[in-house]
Amino acid sequence: MRRLVRFLSLVVVLAALGWLGLWWYAESRLALAVDQAAARLHAAGWTVSHGAVTRGTSPFVADVRVADLRLTPPVADGPAPTLEIPAVDLVVHPAAPLTLDLGFATVWRMALEGGPSFTLRFGSIAADDRFDLADLLHHAPDPLRAGAFHATDLRVDSENTNFTLVSIAAIDASGTRNPDAGPDSMAATLHESLRGLALSPLFVTLGNLPFGGKLTALSVDLALSGPAAALPARLTLPPGARWLAPGAAANLPALWRQLGPALHRWAQGGGHGTYDFGLTVGPLDAHGTGSFGFDAGAQPKGRLHLVADGLGAALGALSTHYPSLTGDISALTTAAAPYFTRGPKGGQRLAVDFVLAHGAVSANGTKLTTVPPLVWPASPQAVPGKAAPKG
Length: 391
Hints:
Blueprint: H1 2-43, E1 47-49, E2 53-55, E3 62-72, E4 81-92, E5 99-104, E6 107-112, E7 117-121, E8 124-131, H2 133-137, E9 144-158, E10 164-177, E11 186-199, H3 201-207, E12 214-225, H4 252-268, E13 272-281, E14 284-294, E15 300-309, H5 311-321, H6 326-336, E16 340-342, E17 348-357, E18 360-363, E19 366-370
Antiparallel strand pairs: 1-3, 2-3, 3-4, 4-5, 4-6, 5-8, 6-7, 7-9, 8-9, 9-10, 10-11, 11-12, 12-13, 13-14, 14-15, 15-17, 16-17, 17-18, 18-19
Pfam families: DUF2125
Protein name: DUF2125 domain-containing protein
Keywords: Membrane, Transmembrane, Transmembrane helix
């Protein structure tokens, strides 16, 4: 009996030591992940700084906290915004060892260089990432397989006056990726939604904005199938590019030259996808669902089913607020007239089936226009001693 007690005691001690070793290793990997993420952002031109990185003391959860995180994206012209997050918690629970939970302080600060500053207040904010075990053990550069982000009751205030500029009831985003996907497998998915966006009443009055400056809901879903190895692994923007700035369209050819060859290989390998979107603003409630792919010549093809209720009332509101657009809105209404039907509540419903095939676009079976062939960019010149990718 005494030997059994000693044996069991030894087992308990060894198990405890093993557990502590795993806990220490997990927290070490979390701390290392902070440095690796900062290094990747630095390589992309970001300015990153943070305060103390502290490790948790409870052996029942792996926990690392990053204090005073500051992020500044690369900006070639104009003021650079700096985002300040007081604290970020990285947590791994034993019950879900391949899931990284991210917790954030609920009050952030954003400042423009030499300009105004803003306070971002969240009712709640959290995110999680899920990883592949084999890739983690082999230190793969990107073991991420899925992620999600959720925030509620976001309010953006002017820091100096506490004046609310915009509020959002909820933001949700999630995605998955499968780097081993083949021609008939799901390679990636993306879901994003926003609910309850409202601009300050002052902006609504000054800008004579329709719909009370409110957007009820916006959502986008995308699913990509086909050879994941052919898809661009990461979007690397040319140094100093500002894609959303005035004149950014001049950078689009460079982006196309960069991503086009990889997308061409994906198209040739059977790449295809589905999408879904929804928009509710004022009286308008629109929803679209469709699919896209490529024919034997790697030319795009696809379908879109679009349904919109309340479009006439929404266009009427725009005409009231922006009289200068009345002519354009009348022309749009006339063009859409053949596609109006009676909706379930007796109002007008826009219902259109768009099809892109064989270089032509049709709506409800009627040809609308022809589309010139897509010219794929040439692949980059091969590096000596290294084979050039196909496509």
